[in-house]
Amino acid sequence: MARSAASSIRRVASLATPLALALPVMVMAAPGARAAGMPQLDFANPYVIGQVIWGAVIFLVLYVLLSRSALPKVEAVLTSRRQTIDNDLDIARRAKAEADGAVDELHQARRTAMAEAQANVDKVIEDARLSALRQTQEMNARLAVEIHEAEARVAAARKAALGSLRQIADETAQALVRQVTGASVPADVVARTVDHAATARGL
Amino acid sequence: MAAGSTIDALGQFELHPVLGGLGEALRFSQSPLMMIVASVAVLAFLYVGMRPKAVVPGRLQAAAEICYDFIHNMAVDTIGPEGRAFFPFVFTLFFFILAGNYLGLLPFSFAFTSHVAVTVALALMVFVLSVIVSLKVQGAKFFAHFMPAGAPMALAPLLVPIEILSFLSRPVSLSIRLFANMVAGHVMLEMFAAFTIMLAGLGLIGDALAVGPVVINVALMALELLVGALQAYVFAILTCIYLREAVAH
User: Fold this and answer.
1) Distance between CA atoms of A144 and A148, rounded to whole angstroms?
2) Which subcellular locations apply to this protein (chain B) (predicted)?
3) Residue B56's closest chain A neighbor by CA?
4) Closest residue of chain B to A14, computed from CA coordinates
5) The total number of structural domains that make up chain B
6) A166: which of A88, A125, A147, B66 lies 20 to 30 Å off by Cα?
């Protein structure tokens, strides 16, 4: 027993030597270590066995206190936390589902509103187009009537102008013949001749 | 501790009665005292930490919950759905050892996990529990595990004793691993602390050199923090592995 203790000390010392090569004292001291037996193996000492009995009692008490009181307390806190987290997650999941529903509704309402607005816009544009068309037609009709009236007026004026032109032509022709020949020509001959010439010229 | 040129690296593991005559009569040494301190610390950590019962935890509550989740996951992932039943046991085991390892690093304190009697008791408790659970869940089929499936019958006289030996060595390795790690760490701390004192006795050069072991002890303290957590974890995870084999059909 003493030998093993001494050898164990020497082994420990030899393990420590590389750590402290700068300490020559150690090398001198190590062999001088007291070669007493290990107190742990001195079973004649009643305290060595006494601590085992005490240790058994203390370990048992510690085990009972831990398993019945301390550890269930920790477990209760951990369980309640897990439940709290699960509940919160459930609430969050429900809230998310509600929010998703609300977003869907919002999108639906937005789509409906957009469709209505588009329909309104289309209707307004169509109305505007139709009214513009109607106005154009009215305007065209009025203009056509005016053009027609104007044309009638032009034709009347032309007719009137052409009528007086015949008379002037007759008188001019009679005057020319008298001036040139000195004889007067009967009015109906002049009229017939002028008529003939006018027709030949498309008047 | 260190007198002259000798180092008493093992004196720190001696057990002394505390509380005077009462301690002597009840065989109550500093070791059970630290067990109580460790247990109170673990319980206080959970009770004080979980007092706010907040949905969004504060720092201490988050730490308590992380510890709970860590062991709970370890138990359920390793053992399986049946691990829920063993979770309080694994939790107790892990934090009893962890608190013991860490309390032992405080000055004037004592690491009860550095006593082989304590670690053997813990390992035997795990071993006996796993055997009881095995017998309860598997019945007589439990003994069939000592004959590896598919091995030729002719090898049974060789294999069965080996399997039994390896099974029985579980509590030994489990206890010695924790015990040896804790003892080695505390012996190292003690020795380097003693070097500082011895070097300081050499005068001016010694004073300068004495800084060396202190620096090493700071590094060792960091290492011991790692080892303390690691050994508690190893003990707990091996317990889970043994229990998984016990509940497996």
Assistant:
1) 6
2) Cell membrane; Membrane
3) A81
4) B188
5) 1
6) A147
